[in-house]
């Protein structure tokens, strides 16, 4: 299992100036290396026995540019530009590895046939982090103790360790990140022990969740979590700050100060949302052994008129955090197809079409009446339980036996219980 711990660091003025210089030099190196790759791609986009009808560069075709060729050129870079001698070689290599990953994501599709966007040239200030490949290794250039990090070039830098790293975890990499309110170090720790997931026969409680905008989420037991409109609450303040920025002279000190105020506002929104997501995720994991949710196409939903509200609640980020917390705690986390979960009746399976404005599910066949989000959450739970064959006794309406019973009519006017075993 790999975990990342983020701690704030407090460098002095000389150390902070060194960070700024490194980030700027690494940004220039990123742009030069990316330009090499794009130039090689432009020169080799056509076969050697034919030419492009629009334009074709004339000149010698260089060898293929990749990570290994660019890594071997680092010695020549330090000769031509002596400032790069102050940067550790492994930091420059990690910078090239990051570019290589972005390049491959653009050219090579993944298992689903999707590709990432083309890597971009970075403007001044856009490269905001650099990494070390080893920590506390005998040959590592950076060391981490209980309350500081140390390198030969910087000396000791105080670290605010608000949460200790668990015993048994071995530090692997370190990344220095520049944020709106200062510098942080992200330490990646690895442990060979993986939390064992709860055996199917030991699952005692299960829940399905349905995310929405009226309520952030609704569980199959009728519990709800209210929506926090974090961005929508601060958008007017943010708009005023951005109008002030537009009236400043670009590049002036007042422009930079106003730009920092806007960055701090965005950081406040991000941290508030992150804290809310993690608290909600831990609340679910503490109470249930089996959690089921919908595998939503959030990018598609964000193209609708409700895009701002959907992006504000950030369903995708929440589900990622919920899955990470569940895996860490050994709790089942299952995603199911959202097809039919809102329309189908959780009691009899009859399709009841409804528009988004209709908030109540009323089935004409079995006379079931309940909140539409709770009905969808029950359907999500039923799908997940059937998919994995969990041995929980379900009522005919799809809910757990200890939940609220719902009547279903049968030919003999009896109530039945279904068992997946």
From TrEMBL:
GO molecular function terms attached to this record: DNA binding; metal ion binding
The Transposase putative helix-turn-helix domain, residue ranges: 1-44
Domain Probable transposase IS891/IS1136/IS1341: 198-303
Pfam families: Cas12f1-like_TNB, HTH_OrfB_IS605, OrfB_IS605
Domain spans labelled Cas12f1-like TNB: 315-380
Listed GO biological process terms: DNA recombination; transposition
Keywords for the protein's UniProt record, in alphabetical order: DNA recombination, DNA-binding, Metal-binding, Transposition, Zinc
Coiled-coil spans in chain: none
Annotated family: In the C-terminal section; belongs to the transposase 35 family.
NCBIfam families xref list: guided_TnpB (NF040570)
Official protein name in the record: Transposase (Probable), IS891/IS1136/IS1341:Transposase, IS605 OrfB
The species this protein was found in: Crocosphaera watsonii WH 8501
């Amino acid at each position: 299992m790999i975990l990342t711990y983020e701690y704030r660091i407090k460098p002095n003025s000389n150390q902070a100036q060194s960070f700024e210089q490194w980030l700027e030099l690494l940004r220039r190196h990123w742009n030069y290396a990316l330009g090499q790759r794009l130039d090689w791609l432009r020169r080799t986009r056509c076969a050697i026995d034919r030419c492009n009808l629009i334009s074709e560069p004339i000149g010698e075709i260089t060898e293929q540019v990749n990570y290994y060729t660019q890594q071997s050129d680092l010695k020549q870079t330090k000769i031509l530009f002596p400032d790069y001698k102050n940067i550790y070689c492994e930091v420059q290599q990690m910078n090239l590895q990051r570019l290589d990953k972005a390049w491959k994501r653009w050219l090579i599709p993944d298992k689903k046939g999707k590709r990432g966007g083309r890597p971009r040239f970075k403007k001044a200030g856009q490269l905001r982090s650099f990494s070390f490949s080893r920590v506390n290794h005998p040959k590592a250039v950076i060391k981490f103790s209980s309350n500081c990090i140390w390198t030969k070039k910087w000396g000791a830098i105080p670290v605010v360790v608000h949460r200790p790293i668990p015993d048994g975890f071995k530090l692997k990499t370190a990344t220095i990140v520049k944020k709106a309110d200062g510098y942080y170090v992200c330490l990646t720790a690895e442990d060979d022990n993986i939390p064992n997931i709860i055996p199917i026969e030991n699952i005692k409680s299960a829940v399905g969740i349905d995310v929405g905008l009226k309520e952030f989420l609704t569980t199959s037991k009728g519990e709800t979590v209210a929506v926090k409109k974090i961005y929508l609450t601060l958008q007017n303040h943010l708009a005023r700050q951005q109008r002030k920025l537009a009236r400043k002279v670009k590049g002036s000190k007042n422009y930079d100060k106003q730009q920092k105020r806007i960055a701090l506002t965005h950081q406040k929104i991000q941290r508030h949302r992150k804290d809310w997501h993690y608290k909600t995720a831990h609340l679910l994991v503490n109470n249930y052994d089996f959690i089921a949710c919908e595998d939503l196409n959030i990018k598609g939903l964000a193209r609708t008129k409700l895009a701002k509200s959907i992006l504000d609640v950030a369903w995708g980020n929440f589900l990622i955090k919920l899955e990470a917390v569940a895996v860490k705690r050994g709790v089942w986390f299952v995603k199911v197809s959202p097809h039919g979960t809102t329309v189908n009746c959780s009691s009899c399976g009859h399709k009841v079409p409804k528009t988004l404005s209709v908030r109540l599910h009323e089935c004409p066949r079995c006379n079931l009446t309940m909140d539409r989000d709770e009905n969808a959450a029950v359907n999500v739970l039923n799908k997940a339980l059937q998919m994995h064959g969990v041995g929980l006794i379900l009522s005919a309406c799809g809910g757990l036996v200890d939940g609220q019973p719902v009547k279903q009519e049968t030919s003999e006017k009896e109530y039945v219980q279904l068992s997946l075993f």
